[in-house]
Amino acid sequence: MIGEAGQEQFIFVGFVIAxxxxxxxxxxxxxxPAFFGFLAGATxxxxxxxxxxxxxxxxxTILETLDLQSAVRDALHRLDETRAELERxxxxxxRVTLILALAAEPARPAEPDGGETAVGFEAAGRxxxxxxxx
Length: 134
Known about the structure:
Blueprint: H1 7-27, H2 32-104, H3 118-129
Helix pairs in contact: 1-2
């Protein structure tokens, strides 16, 4: 009944059973065990069906949530791999740029004193001892 019927029909059946139980209270009030027997027989199958349906939907929701969490975990893993690959590509790009820049520069003759010439030291010494600096 639950699988083939829609939710509206299931709610309608619940209201019908609730109405029958209210009518049974009026007609069976003189013998309380008869009323409780009718109440249990009419409402327990509906309550069991509600619990089964709710449990089934809850289980389906949990399974869907677990599937989505797994998909998110996989997507984050792929994102981390892509970021690492991008970082490697950036480093490689800068290495290639540096190699090409060094290859494009003209060769300079090497200075014997590490880049400073004697004239450069003399000019620096004169500037340090000039009277305007004192």
